[in-house]
Amino acid sequence: xxxxxxxxxxxxxxELIRYCEQILSLDPKQSDAxxxxxxxxxxxRNVAKALEFVDxxxxxxxxxAEYLAQKAKLHSLVNQYEQALAAAGKISVSGxxxxxxxxxxxxxxxxxxxxxxxxxxLSKAVALQSGNPQFHFNLASVEQFLGNIDAxxxxxxxxxxxxxxxxxAHWSLSELGKTKSEAIHTDRLEKxxxxxxxTVQDKLYLCHxxxxxxxxxxxxxxxxxxxxxxxKNMRSQLKYSFERDEKLFSKSKEAFxxxxxxxxxxxxxxxxxxxxxxxxxxMPRSGTTLLDRMLASHSQVSSLGEIQDFALAVRKNVQLNxxxxxSPNIIEQAATSSxxxxxxxxxxxxAAHKADTQFVIDKTPLNFLYVGFIMNALPKAKIVCLRRNxxxxxxxxxxxxxxxxxxxxxxxxxxxxxxxxxxxxxQLMTHWREMFGNRLYEVxxxxxxxxxxxxxxxxxxxxxxxxxAECLEFHNSKEAVSTASSVQVREKxxxxxxxxxxxxxxxxxxxxxxxxxMGIEY
Length: 522
Known about the structure:
Strand content: under 5%
Shape: globular
Distance between the termini: 57 Å
């Protein structure tokens, strides 16, 4: 019944809420009515109301696994880690026979970075309902994050066998680089693209998968052509505005002008100094995951991966009728609020992750927009920024498919938007460098992959850590990785990605012309 309810459209959800209200007006102890009202409210993006409703259902049936899974899912959506884990932890994976409940809490555990627990729940869901392609897909994703590439490929393939037009599974399989035959996979992707009725999102996934297969065959012209085809269609449906990104970058600089000095680490308040925190940031696809894995292989360092905790700490410091996490108005108001409160809120949020090492990494690339906030709110925190060749960075962003529902990567659906975004990044980093000097530590991706030991030695020294050879054995780490580089960082260090743009030099000529005009070196 709950599965059928979750498949309703928006109009039907509104009708469902009305029915639930009628039932509850007659008998407020109908727990299922509260539960279905919670599902409907969540579908309408009213998470606060959805939590209120599911809590009422749980007050009547505290041990109901469906209700607990819904509560865990809702808390995870708003990054309330402790509450989500508490709700999920009340569900016995071994004792639950409801496959949908197991899949739901498996996805919750995955979102919260508890990948072993996620695999346990998702494996049980697949065992109970082996014919569900989405369950196989979810399990495959977690196996990929855990580094079990063969198992991931097996379940992506199973999902495709059950649902041959499962576009996202085709894309995920191509990202693994484990397709059994590029020719066979290319043929089936081409046939799927020719089918009528495919959504723009499905075509985007299929075009990215096709691009990867052509690239593996050395056909770079067709690989790029596939990217353009998929991204162009998606770009036309987005409400993306490059001007919005320009305003974000501009407001970040305006909010923290050069004369606005941050507290010195030596004089910072010990209660909220953030001295444990290491922020690894940079343009997406610039090597942040690689450096994160290297540093996290040190015995005194652990990584939280890509988290939204700092962005949310800033957002919660302002009262605006704005449902975005970051906007020019949010930056402006937050910059004039209590930055110490932002620091305290962030450290409290990080503490919920239960990292017990001396240093903790927040590896969120887009934190480069928050450098002014970080330096002021957490004056003893360390910031390490990755820098990569401009052309390679643009190409790598363009050929990557980031989360479709995450608006802050909207630039990467257009090649020149991606290049202009990189230029904004360069300008902002120049501003931060002028403000903070050597407190902003920069690492060259190219040097990192060709001279790893001296680069890591210097980076560790800057962080106050001694050299450990284990940092070069990052590929042997059993820690989960859930970023776009989850496959690459399981391999030994390689430098073949440097200069990849030259294979696409003809297609990237407009970017070269733009960079030449702007004086950006490549």
